[in-house]
Sequence to fold (122 residues):
Amino acid sequence: MRSALRPARLREIAYARSGDKGSSSNIGRMAYTEEGYQYLRDSLTSDVIRSYFLPLGVTRVERYEIPKLWAFNFLLYRVLGEGGSRSLRVDAQGKALAVALLEMELELPAELHDRCVRKKGI
Fold:
């Protein structure tokens, strides 16, 4: 029997920051709880992130794990086209990519939902 799933956005499980270097961008993502980190370790793969940002032209994504901080750093290659100084994009430096990623919709197993999702007002 499959576990029931409950919807959540990534922002309910983690926060993120992003930056850039040339044509690439990085997104650091840190879970609010250890259970959230463990769920994301299994479900937020490089392939999932690449698929999510494919419309922006990303060519490759590398994921680096930082388990003691319940965090990951994703390096997104060529997501900024030719880079900040040569791009006509509104966000040529990639600062909004973290916010875009936080809007990703996830389906959490119901038994994990309350242990992964940040409580309101905290």
About this structure: The radius of gyration is 15 Å.
